[in-house]
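Records of this kind hold a single protein each, on a pair of labelled lines. With that in mind, the following record should read easily:
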Amino acid sequence: MIQSVCIYCASSADIDTPYVKDAEKLGTLLGQRSMHVINGGGSIGLMRAVSDATLKAGGTVTGIIPRFMVESGWCHEGLTALIRTETMHERKQMMAGLSDAAIALPGGYGTLEELLEIITWRQLGLYKKPVIILNTNSYYDPLLEMFSRATRENFIRAGHASLWQVAKTPEDVIAIFNC
C-alpha cells in the first residue's frame, strides 16, 4: 500500500501553466488521500506547487534539503517537516528510503538525475517500489525515445522497460497506485 511518495520536480520559478496546474492537481489528489509527500523542500516552482496543494488538501509534506540550500534561503518554511542533510547524496537516499513510490514531474538537470538514479536503483534491486514518470505536455517523450533507442541497441535490456511506468495525467498516477 502506497502511503508516502517521493516527488522529483522542477524548482524553477518560470514554468509554463500546464506544468504548474498538473503539479497542483497531483498535490491535491495526494492530499485528498491523506498521502505523505517527500520532496526536496524547495520554496519555488513545481516543488512548491505540489507541496502547497498537498497541504491545502489535507496531506503532509516532508522536505529534505541540504544545509547549504537552507543557508541560501531556498527552503519552504511551511512544510509539515523539514529535514536538513549534509550532502545531496544523503538527501536523495533519505527521500527514497522514506517513500513507498517515486514520481518524476517535469524538471531540469536535478530532476533528470534523480529520475535516472532511482531507475538505476530499481534495476540493481536497491529500490523495489514503483517509479512513475508524469509526462505532462509530452515533456518526457524525448527521454522515453532515448530509452527505446538504448533498448533497441542493447544498452538497456528489454525487460528493464518495466522499471518505470508513464502517466499522462495526475489522475493516471493515482490510477497506477490503485492497481
Notes: Residues 119 and 163 are 6 Å apart (CA to CA).
